[in-house]
Design goal:
2 copies of one chain form a homodimer.
Chain A (H helix, E strand, L loop, with lengths): L15 H12 L4 E2 H10 L6 H13 L3 E5 L5 E5 L6 E5 L5 E4 L2 H13 L3 E12 L1 H7 L1
Parallel strand pairs in A: 4-6
Antiparallel strand pairs in A: 1-3, 2-3, 4-5
Helix pairs in contact in A: 1-3, 2-3
Chain A binds a DNA duplex through helix 3.
DNA sequence: GGTGCGCATGAGAATCATTCTCGCATGGTC
DNA sequence: GACCATGCGAGAATGATTCTCATGCGCACC
């Protein structure tokens, strides 16, 4: 833990557990917590250790194959998504997620940062709401 | 935990510890974690329990006097700020923060949500970067 | 097809932030 | 000045995530 940050790791080995995690995420369309995913895997018979789920998720995040979201109570939620830059519109009732890619926000963030002399800018945008289906069911 | 969510609390009592937390936050201009704040209070001689710091912070957040930010490693960070709606531009090196209030993003979020049939919309935007001072010091 | 190396796995312990418990102190009110 | 609810503090409890370490197994090579 002093210097080398393994530039491109070694081989990323294929394993039953990792494909199980990825497969499960492919079938779900909302953000799920690591604990949730672990429970779901157990349910469907794919016995996987909790630590392994965390490791698999981190590896996938590193690869850019997953997006992470931190719920207000501190739990991390993961979701399979396209590798290009985008943001999320999340239903706070059913968890359904829509990927949103919109140049205006990107430009806005860049402009705001530039105005204040900030460089090397990243941004983080999430929009929460109630989707049409849930709003209808609720009313 | 069944029904009553004390609508407007009772009396919010004044105490040495609460003012100490608020005073400290007034003097700092970046986001600080609860643990940090607790340590700082101890350092300056204001002996305050950790639980009390958390309670005070939550009360202040409820009052809208503080903003909360969740760092990627799951720690919550707090900062004194204006009560009106705004977002933050945060220096990832020194933690310096600039409040940004800009109508375009608000409109963007509302539009995106509307396009997908979402209602009752909230959004969460943070912009991270390196401020001019830190960029200069670093290069 | 067989062998070996090294990363991956898994169970449980460890860690860390946060919340809860409970008895005591004290602010604010009458 | 007394009373009662709310705040305090120390430490235990909780819950998510990470670490440890012995064993398992994917994959490259023969």
């Amino acid at each position: 833990m002093s210097a080398a940050e393994q530039p491109e790791g070694g081989v990323r080995r294929q394993s039953r557990q990792r494909s199980a995690v990825l497969t499960l995420l492919d079938e779900l369309d909302g953000f799920r917590s690591a604990q949730d995913l672990h429970a779901l895997l157990r349910d469907r018979g794919d016995s996987v250790g909790l630590a392994t789920v965390y490791r698999a998720l981190q590896a996938l995040v590193d690869d850019g194959q997953l997006d992470v979201l931190r719920s207000p109570d501190g739990e991390a939620a993961y979701r399979r998504c396209s590798p290009s830059h985008h943001h999320h519109l999340v239903c706070r009732t059913c968890g359904r997620t829509v990927e949103v890619a919109d140049p205006p926000v990107e430009r806005w963030a860049a402009r705001i940062a530039a105005e204040h002399g900030f460089v090397d800018v990243q941004h983080d945008v999430e929009v929460f709401g109630t989707c049409a289906a849930c709003a209808a069911a609720h009313g």
